[in-house]
Amino acid sequence: MKVALKALAVAVCYFVAGRLGLLGQLVVQGVVVTPMWPPTGVALAAMLLFGVGVWPGVALGSLLVIASLTTPGSSALITVAGSTVAPLCACLLLRRVGFRLDISRLRDGLGLVFIGGFGAMLISATLGVAPQLWSGDLDTGEFWSVWLAWWVGDAMGVLLVTPLLLVLFLGVTGRFSFRRWKEALCLGLAALALIPVAVLSDASMLFLVFPLLIWAALRFQLAGSMLCALSASVLTTFAANMQRGAFRNLTDVEVMVKLQAFNGAAALTALLLSSLVTEQRATRRAVQQACEELGEVLEHLAAGEKTLEPPIQGD
User: Fold this and answer.
1) HSE value, Cβ hemisphere, 13 Å, CA-based, for 215
2) CA atoms of 55 and 130, how far apart (whole Å)
């Protein structure tokens, strides 16, 4: 019963994330794609947290998203299968390599990028685009551009949404002092000021986002960097849809390529840098603890030697 309720909750979350993701949809070669598909991140996070037994919820949520757009057919079932199998394979492979849910090591960040994102999402992209090629809705010459857009969109959903959901669920934020809260407020205000300028300016200043990502990763690790990266990605997707700022006067394919390149660079910077900083801080704490324990042992040994010294006899 608990597994069924969790699967149902996952289906609802998947559907809601899918509807939100469709707000940023783009048209490439006549096919609707999304630069970032949040449901893939929701699906992988749910399987990592609650187990692979919630896969029916992923399948149901994917089917509901398709049904909200059109009448599901045989090709829709293949797409649902791809949307379910891809995060399932990602979850199993990540567990196989010892992935930690708090992403506290660089190897965890690399595993999520190359196994969970770039690797497993090859399945969903292939099973999502191939039926349209077989049915004749997509020409052979258009296959690779649509397939690439689909693959990158699913991968971005994993890289931007999964880490944030894991942080929120596990509460891996640490204890903030008043000074840290002031710094977090300054970071938030800087993001609110710089991200719109970087995205909406006709001068194409998307590079201004990366100092914010580095600041967030160095000082607030995964929680700060992924939230900043996700905010920048959402606003950049909006600008791409409206063809404003850095995306003005570009073709649909050029808009998709530029948007995906920015989203990918932002996600990789935030995820890998924050995991590296977290690992280094954990190593430093372990070394400090070992030094303190060694100091206590040396004190006990010194005290024991003093008690064993023979008394000095007088003449």
Assistant:
1) 16
2) 22
What are the tens digits of pLDDT across the range 3-59?
A: 889 999 999 999 999 999 888 777 665 666 788 899 999 999 999 999 999 999 999
Q: Residue 12's closest CA among 52, 65, 48?
A: 65
Q: What is the pTM of this model?
A: 0.85
Structure tokens at 51: 């187990």
Tens-digit pLDDT profile for residues 198-245: 888 877 788 989 999 999 999 888 888 999 999 999 898 888 888 888
Give the burial class of 126: count Cβ atoms within 10 A of its Cβ; 0-12 exposed, 13-18 middle, 19 or more buried. Answer: middle
Q: In terms of Cα–Cα distance, which of 64, 69, 61, 9 is closest to 40? A: 61
Contacts of residue 33, defined as CB under 8 A and 6 or more positions apart, other chains included, come to: 25, 26, 27, 146, 149, 150, 153, 256
pLDDT > 70 in the chain, percent: 91
Distances 288 to 65, 185, 281 between C-alpha atoms, Å:
51, 30, 11
pLDDT of residue 108: 92
Is residue 126 within 8 A of residue 147, CB to CB? The reply is yes
Strand partners, 27: 32
The three-state secondary structure class of 45 is helix
* Strands 31-33 vs 26-28: parallel, antiparallel or unpaired: antiparallel
What sign does the dihedral 51-18-260-192 (CA atoms) show? Answer: negative
pLDDT in tens, 101-159: 989 888 999 999 999 999 999 999 999 888 878 877 777 777 888 888 889 889 999 99
Using the predicted structure, report yes or no on whether residue 175 has a pLDDT greater than 60: no
Residue bearing tokens 């909200």? 68
CB-based contact 55:85 (threshold 8 Å): no
Residues 116/147, Cβ–Cβ less than 8 Å: no
The DSSP code sequence of 181-229 is HHHHHHHHHHHHHHHHHHHH-TT--GGGHHHHHHHHHHHHHHHHHHHHH
